[in-house]
């Protein structure tokens, strides 16, 4: 955990919800200032957006590239996932999502049965969490049709072994382009949701202002007053800081052995636009496609426009330490951290000793007088650095 406390981790957790009194209008002053800054920063991007909308469905839109990428990602079995270089990092992400869901359930009372929209659900990686959260109904929506098919299959397996599982429906749609609510896509047009969850997906909509707005409209029009929007997205401040253009004004890339972030030459960086600040993100085994910086103040203003109130925004390391007391058992069960030094006969996840210097230093500084050296839970440095790119929103 030592690596967590050195200030290198800059991810955030935010909690947004619609207040009990319902949606209030955004002041025109705020709206105007937002529209103005958007225009100033984003002239060329606006043109691109229009082109993209006019040729909707063709390859000029990043959405189709993203869908294609996730569609062709093969599903990994449990055994294969255990061999993964980012096994613990993925488990830590899953632990965090489980803890957020648990918080929401506590807020609503453990007996309430939530209606949920999983926006950008992928292959259904969170279905088991919804099952454990005893939710009532889940609308699973994703731009990638094959992922939605795989999500359906996963759900069918869960339903086969557990009859009392939540009901579910599946929508293949670009949620930054179409409004799911009220369209024929929702099986029950009257369904009001208690929770919208958008995990690792909101950043795709920051390609343009209309897309980000559509995504938020999908959140807000489906939530009932008092409902929650939770999610995780990338941390633009952290990405820009790590790009280090103050030290090297030409720099467009950073990363390590498991991930990289690279801005193509056409993305202006000094400063980046509010929308369409495209970079290519590579994460070993799981992601290789374009994403967009999410300028958080803009996201927050837009969310306000759609009636969402910021409840909580917590940095990643704060969230982990806040949840450690109550979530430790689950953390261990989910193998969300790697034991260091490794147990007998086990190899560390990374073969690079540099990846464990922080853990070794922590142990050296804390071993007891009798020489007893406990094991600690950590991630390899490369995984911490990749995790740090993520901002948790709630
Ligand atoms: C990194 S994956 C996360 C999947 C899942 N939420 C999870 O946490 O495991 C991002 C997902 O967002 C989906 N996505 C990207 N853009 C989208 C859009 N415009 N509308 C709906 N889904 C989208 C992708 O297809 C992909 O499944």
UniProtKB/TrEMBL annotation:
<keyword id="KW-0808">Transferase</keyword>
<keyword id="KW-0949">S-adenosyl-L-methionine</keyword>
<feature type="binding site">
    <location>
        <position position="142"/>
    </location>
    <ligand>
        <name>S-adenosyl-L-methionine</name>
    </ligand>
</feature>
<protein>
    <recommendedName>
        <fullName>mRNA cap guanine-N(7) methyltransferase</fullName>
        <ecNumber>2.1.1.56</ecNumber>
    </recommendedName>
</protein>
<dbReference type="GO" id="GO:0003723">
    <property type="term" value="F:RNA binding"/>
</dbReference>
<keyword id="KW-0539">Nucleus</keyword>
<feature type="binding site">
    <location>
        <position position="199"/>
    </location>
    <ligand>
        <name>S-adenosyl-L-methionine</name>
    </ligand>
</feature>
<keyword id="KW-0506">mRNA capping</keyword>
<dbReference type="InterPro" id="IPR039753">
    <property type="entry name" value="RG7MT1"/>
</dbReference>
<feature type="domain" description="MRNA cap 0 methyltransferase">
    <location>
        <begin position="84"/>
        <end position="394"/>
    </location>
</feature>
<dbReference type="InterPro" id="IPR029063">
    <property type="entry name" value="SAM-dependent_MTases_sf"/>
</dbReference>
<keyword id="KW-0489">Methyltransferase</keyword>
<dbReference type="GO" id="GO:0005634">
    <property type="term" value="C:nucleus"/>
</dbReference>
<feature type="binding site">
    <location>
        <position position="97"/>
    </location>
    <ligand>
        <name>S-adenosyl-L-methionine</name>
    </ligand>
</feature>
<feature type="binding site">
    <location>
        <position position="204"/>
    </location>
    <ligand>
        <name>S-adenosyl-L-methionine</name>
    </ligand>
</feature>
<keyword id="KW-0507">mRNA processing</keyword>
<feature type="binding site">
    <location>
        <position position="120"/>
    </location>
    <ligand>
        <name>S-adenosyl-L-methionine</name>
    </ligand>
</feature>
<feature type="compositionally biased region" description="Basic and acidic residues">
    <location>
        <begin position="38"/>
        <end position="51"/>
    </location>
</feature>
<comment type="similarity">
    <text>Belongs to the class I-like SAM-binding methyltransferase superfamily. mRNA cap 0 methyltransferase family.</text>
</comment>
<dbReference type="Pfam" id="PF03291">
    <property type="entry name" value="mRNA_G-N7_MeTrfase"/>
</dbReference>
<dbReference type="GO" id="GO:0004482">
    <property type="term" value="F:mRNA 5'-cap (guanine-N7-)-methyltransferase activity"/>
</dbReference>
<keyword id="KW-0694">RNA-binding</keyword>
<dbReference type="InterPro" id="IPR016899">
    <property type="entry name" value="mRNA_G-N7_MeTrfase_euk"/>
</dbReference>
<feature type="region of interest" description="Disordered">
    <location>
        <begin position="38"/>
        <end position="58"/>
    </location>
</feature>
<dbReference type="InterPro" id="IPR004971">
    <property type="entry name" value="mRNA_G-N7_MeTrfase_dom"/>
</dbReference>
<feature type="binding site">
    <location>
        <position position="174"/>
    </location>
    <ligand>
        <name>S-adenosyl-L-methionine</name>
    </ligand>
</feature>
């Amino acid at each position: 955990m030592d690596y967590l406390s050195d200030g290198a981790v800059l991810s955030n957790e935010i909690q947004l919800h619609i207040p009990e009194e319902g949606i209030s209008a955004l002041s025109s002053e705020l709206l105007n200032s937002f529209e103005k800054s958007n225009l100033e920063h984003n002239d060329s991007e606006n043109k691109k957006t229009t082109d993209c909308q006019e040729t909707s469905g063709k390859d000029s839109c990043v959405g189709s590239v993203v869908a294609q990428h996730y569609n062709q990602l093969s599903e990994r079995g449990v055994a294969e996932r255990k061999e993964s270089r980012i096994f613990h990092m993925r488990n830590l992400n899953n632990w965090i999502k489980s803890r957020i869901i648990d918080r929401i359930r506590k807020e609503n009372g453990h007996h309430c049965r939530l209606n949920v929209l999983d926006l950008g659900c992928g292959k259904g990686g969170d279905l088991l969490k919804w099952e454990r959260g005893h939710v009532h109904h889940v609308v699973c929506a994703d731009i990638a049709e094959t992922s939605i098919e795989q999500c359906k299959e996963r759900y069918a397996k869960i339903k086969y072994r557990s009859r009392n599982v939540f009901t579910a429906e599946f929508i293949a749609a670009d949620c930054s382009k179409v409004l799911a609510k009220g369209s024929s896509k929702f099986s029950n047009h009257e369904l009001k949701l208690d929770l919208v969850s958008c995990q690792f997906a909101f950043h795709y909509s920051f390609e343009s202002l209309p897309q980000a707005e559509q995504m938020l409209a999908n959140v807000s029009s489906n939530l009932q007053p008092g409902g929650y929007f939770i999610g995780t997205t990338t941390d633009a401040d952290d990405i820009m800081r790590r790009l280090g253009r103050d030290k090297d004004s030409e720099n467009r890339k950073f990363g390590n052995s498991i991930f990289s972030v690279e801005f193509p030459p056409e993305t202006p960086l000094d400063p980046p636009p509010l929308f369409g600040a495209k970079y290519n993100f590579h994460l070993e085994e799981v992601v290789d496609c374009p994403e967009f910086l999410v300028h958080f103040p803009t996201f927050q203003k837009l969310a306000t426009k759609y009636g969402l109130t910021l409840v909580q925004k917590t940095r990643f390391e704060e969230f982990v330490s806040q949840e450690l007391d109550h979530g430790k058992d689950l953390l261990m069960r989910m193998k969300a951290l790697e034991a260091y030094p490794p147990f007998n006969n086990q190899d560390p996840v990374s073969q690079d000793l540099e990846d464990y210097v922080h853990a070794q230093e922590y142990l050296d500084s804390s071993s007891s007088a009798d020489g007893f050296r406990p094991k600690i839970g950590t991630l390899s440095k490369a995984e911490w650095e990749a995790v740090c790119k993520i901002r948790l929103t709630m």
